[in-house]
Amino acid sequence: MGSSEGMGICHAYAPDGRCISLLKVLLTNYCMFDCAYCINRSSSNVKRASFTPREVADLTVEFYKRNYIEGLFLSSGIIRSPDHTMEQIVEVARILRDEYDFRGYIHLKTIPEADPKLLEEAGRHADRLSINIELPSRRSLEALAPEKSRDGIEGAMASVKTQIDGAKSEARSARKLRHRTPPKLFAPGGQSTQMVVGADQETDAQVIDTAAGLYGKHQLRRVYYSAYSPIPDAKAGLPVQAPPLIREHRLYQADWLTRFYGFDPKEITATLKGGMLDLDLDPKTIWAMQNRGFFPLDINTADREALLRVPGLGEKGVAKILAARSQGVLRYADLARLAASVRKIKPFVITPDWRPGGLLDAASLEARFRRKAEQSDLFAAAA
Amino acid sequence: MADPASRSILVTLDAEDDIAGFRKEARRLLAERVPPDRVVWRVAGSERDLFGAEPARRASKAEVSLPRAAVELAQAAAHHSDPGRWPLLYTFLHRSLGEKALADNPADPLVRRLRQMEKAVRRDAHKMHAFVRFKEVEDPGGGPSRYIAWFEPDHHIVEREAPFFIRRFANMHWAIVTPRRSIRWEDGQLRAGPGGRREDVPQDDAFDEAWRAYYASIFNPARVKVSAMTAEMPRKYWRNLPEARLIPEMIETASARVATMAANALADEERGIAEAAPRRMAAPVAMPAIRALVRSCTNCPLHGPATQAVPGEGPADARLFLVGEQPGDMEDLEGRPFVGPAGQVLNQALEQAGLDRERAYLTNAVKHFKFELRGKRRLHRSPSAENVDACSEWLLAEHQAVAPAVTVTLGATALRGLLGKSVPLARVRGTQLALPSGGALIPTFHPSYLLRLQDEGARRIEEGKFLSDLRRARELLAA
């Protein structure tokens, strides 16, 4: 039963606006580790509970049959030993795939300290594997998650990458040789990681830099940023205040720019003040304001890579412009139909009947974007 | 016979969603290059056609060649529920015969309109994939269960989306019932039929309750963003989603839950403090003995370089107990607490707050001066947690012997000395904690913090806080 074609489907939304796509559970919240930022750390006095692997597999299938979910995202506290815990996680995936013939989506959180053989088994069952990098720097990891090691985490990521690549090339040669049944892929959905932001003193520059390193070295599909939320009975030395949620949002925007908009991470970190992303304005607008010489761009001749740098133009907007201009010269009115907000892009572009003139001056851009940012803040304060 | 070019052609479709009929008729008309303004589209049973046009029923064998993108766009937009879409679609297809790239020109107003329809159909389909909820109906004969869903799409998409559900639930027996059409999948066979009623489908399922429990627990009440939720899960879908009945209460109780969480966190903290707070000595020690023991203390290495230990001073039955950090340079030389610059700030503040220093017991968390030699100057160094813990025995003995009504800790070190655990001062300053021994604890800054503040404005603000903490102590003493 099941298919993982529409992995992006959100089957429900919680009143906090978050998408609910997967049954996201812990096998157990008992944990031997004592990571300071985690509610389930060994020294926390949170209530503890456990599932058996079969209970999780059954719940997944029953939820799936009712179309509540796309699949399972399974993680666990470390119980008894890393190997034992990983065995239990793999067992859930094995029951689902081998006994229930479940073909929905499975994402397994893997434990870097576990035996590589278990990691390999996990990859044979799962669509995606993830190993948490936890914190942006070695220094923070040593201070806050003393049982974990950066080398151990990155070593596991490297071995997952090797196995993903190996399985892909096996599949390629099987296709070439026209084998009927290509070998099963290893974690075809790739690997991802999660980084807790705001539990330590590290800057956004450090976060972006670490993420860039991980994308490069281990070819991760995604780095997820998770704003630290203060936990009851916290360890001394952790912040009492949550970092502003907008920080998480800005990091995702910066991440997007490097992955889909052709920005080099260094281009973004070069725009930062004190190593931090601007909370009022998105990083693309900030880059544009600091690189005014790059603009204005001629909508009718600029290439895709350049157009993607216009604040207010996304991948879809640029695709529409490219399609439309192949059928004739675009004028300002055409642009207004093609772009989501022509107001936002007009300081940065030229058409035969439009020139931004003074709109591209530093002061004018500042006034245009900053004032708006302040207004939205006013509303936020009133809400 | 009149000139055929001047006559309108009436085309009748079987139903609002007769897309196959439209396809057939449009192909025939296009083959004959009939211009759009000559065609009148009507749906059987509706009274939309007010022109007295003659019905056209001729088959055509001519082939029409349309660009693939145009066919795909028309196919998708044809599933839209707008009853006025047929002439738009025909106009678009007719123009596409000559303008081969028309479908790819998003700047064309007609294309733009059809793309919007296409988008609405896709969104409706996407929401159907997401929000269909199957209810299990067990087979009384012990056969496989059937799973039935009621769904209300905006557009004519039910049959179009059947393949999605077949791929996903291939080995289940299921049916999706909508007001206009229904589809049923059993034993590898898809059957389409007329629509049904909501009442035809079971309202509940054995797993709805578990699903609701999951839905409620994944919600973070500290981040209520109703508009983000309704943008993606509009209210019109709610009545068919088992989890949606929880939403109003989840939103309504969110702020109270956050407040409770915060209160619990504070209570946790206080409990943590209470648990750690003043360990009671098995046998209380009398004040003169404490002073003698402190003077000869070698519990930690600090006694070496220091001139002398500085025990507390003040009446042994004082109602106010003040704890500082450690003796400074002058205290170390004089052997008395709070006689240096910080002591002067304290004296002034006590006076302003209406407290009498002579009637209070003053002491430090650490009894020896910790310093670093820079040339001839002895520079203050903060005591380590070990220093504080090694010395806490004396502080606790003093505290127990005095048994004050009000204890004021000055700075984070004093707080740790008294409680035996680090509590961030920023979190507890400005509050008043109950000590298990019965007295009240008021945590505030160390006066030397005020001396260090360079900015005049900042100092005034912080001095205000310091004073308000001391005044609170006086109020408690007066009560």
Largest sheet of chain B: 5 strands, mixed
CATH homology-level superfamily of the largest domain in chain A: Aldolase class I
Specify the CATH architecture of the largest domain in chain B. Answer: 3-Layer(aba) Sandwich
CATH class of the largest domain in chain B: Alpha Beta
CATH topology of the largest domain in chain B: Uracil-DNA Glycosylase, subunit E
Would you report the number of β strands of chain B?
15
Largest interface: A-B, 44 and 63 residues
Query: Strand content of the residues of chain B, in percent?
Result: 5-15%
Which structural category do the helix and sheet elements of chain A fall into? Answer: alpha/beta
Overall pLDDT confidence of chain B: 87
Uncertain residue segments of chain A: 376-383
Radius of gyration of chain B: 42 Å
First and last CA, distance of chain A: 46 Å
Coarse shape of chain B: elongated
Find the CATH topology of the largest domain in chain A.
TIM Barrel
**CATH class category of the largest domain in chain A:** Alpha Beta
Major beta sheet, strand line-up of chain A: 3-4-5-6-7-8
Spatial order of strands in the largest sheet of chain B: 4-5-6-7-8
Sum this structure up briefly.
With 383 residues, chain A is an alpha/beta fold. Chain A folds into 2 domains: 12-263, Aldolase class I (TIM Barrel); 283-382, no CATH class.
